RNA sequence: GCGCCAGUAGCUCAGUUGGAUAGAGCAACAGCCUUCUAAGCUGUGGGUCGGGGGUUCGAUUCCCUCCUGGCGCGCCA
């Protein structure tokens, strides 16, 4: 049992003796101020109402009844309106380090997910252009969320959905075709809604080179197919540069060829939630909380095709049918209007899909700043900064961290100058440096970290304030991973790493590990190894490397 | 007009799901460098938590309302 569990059990026992109503679940928190102890509970305050007594009296009684024979408590204080503050023995806190080290690369993992399957869809960019910074944020977020869920015991599948069947694709083909015509000297404009980036011209040139018999792209389906293949290749390279890989690339076109779209329409009609109006087929999404009904199939006058909405529903039906009873979609907040209607569609189809399926993680926009100026120009894309531009310029680790350091709900300013800087102003650098410094101790001391287990070492000497603060942070890591996974918020890991790195640097500067009395060195090596493990595990969750030297 | 998100120190942002005197980094000011990385360290100042109501022992956190900014509101995706 760890400290928290021991204190919790003691509190539950005491509260029961006072006649507290079940279930008793005493909150135990790390106080903001170290002067308020190592653990604190407001249990007495929460019991004030049911017991109809004053919180401080309850606190007194609780403390009197605590069975703490071997809980590692040094002393207890009652403070403020009725907080009970626990001050632990330094040796007891440090005593948890050997177990941390034994867990090593598994430290921070949980079995909460019980191997259940979860599908995480992210990026899902149309194959009509390179990945821009918004996709980059999404790639970082999605991959880190996937990683967090893996760490908490879920069976995770990363999925990329290609909208390769809609009007956007037709526009891409027409745009490339127009460029081909221009290259052969004809004055043809890029069609309305078409794509203007330099990459369109590059594709046209490659097409012409590989199709000497059709240098003008007269056969549109060939041109389009070629363009889509080229764009997917480009995006793959972007993702590769970023270090993200997917288990499944799901093609929208397959929903048509596999009959999933037709099946879904039939199911919706059968379920009785559809009607025709002015020649179009509507789904009554208002029955499921939407503010207006949505068109599934356009009227003949508008082409008679399905809107994007229907394949979207069909796609999520396949997720459910493929055995993912939990699905998370990471998208830009500009798509938030689709959330209600997709969920409505899944309820309407009447397949017993859980309400609230799928879950959404929406993120706000990204602004790239350089030299105090917003950056919009990219040679490759013509109009925006691409993921590969960023990775080329600042490196994968920095890009990943910067995309993850803010919660998705906040708009993100990506400061290229800061991300490039090799100084401790740069948070990625600061965190990696903490890891490298600790690694340096082992290197200089010629000590194999694996040989440091903490067993048979007197850890009671780790009683300096900087040591106790660092140890507590390290011990809080597993809880933090659980909370970050539960809330789907990787930025918590990023913030935690920055704070823990700060504690490492503080400790490192104030206290030496090598060339100290033997028992001090031995104990501090244990702390060094524990800190190294936590930093590395946290960075690993975020997909960032943990260098041994810099 | 309606919906979603945000508003916290001069700047960039945290804030453990309702707790104690609201925190960190940068910037400013003062002092420090013979040690495992000075690519640093220590200290100080800095706040009507956008405004106003409400809920209760207690609110940055929950509810209502207003202000400001971003995004969205199509038989586009």
- Estimate what percentage of residues fall within beta strands: 5-15%
On the 0 to 100 scale, the average pLDDT is: 90
Sequence of strands across the biggest β-sheet: 6-5-4-10-11
Kindly report how far apart the N and C termini lie: 38 Å
Low-pLDDT segments: none
Total number of distinct structural domains: 4
Count of strand segments: 14
CATH domain class of the largest domain = Alpha Beta
Radius of gyration: 29 Å
User: How many strands, what sense, and barrel or not for the largest sheet?
Assistant: 5 strands, parallel
Tell me, briefly, the overall form.
Answer: globular
CATH superfamily of the largest domain: HUPs
- The CATH topology assignment of the largest domain is Rossmann fold
- By helix and strand content, what is the structural category? alpha/beta
In words, what does this structure look like?
It is a single chain. With 550 residues, this protein is of the alpha/beta class. The protein has 4 domains: 3-88, Gyrase A, domain 2; 97-110 and 424-541, Isoleucyl-tRNA Synthetase, Domain 1; 117-162 and 246-363, HUPs (Rossmann fold, 3-Layer(aba) Sandwich), CATH 3.40.50.620; 167-242, no CATH class. It is built from 21 helices and 14 strands. The strands form 4 sheets. A 5-stranded parallel β-sheet has the order 6-5-4-10-11. The chain has a 3-stranded antiparallel β-sheet with strand order 1-3-2. Helix 6 (133-151) crosses helix 15, helix 17 (427-445) runs antiparallel to helix 21 and helix 18 (465-475) packs parallel to helix 21 (518-541). The two termini are 38 Å apart. The mean pLDDT is 90. The structure holds one RNA strand of 77 nucleotides.
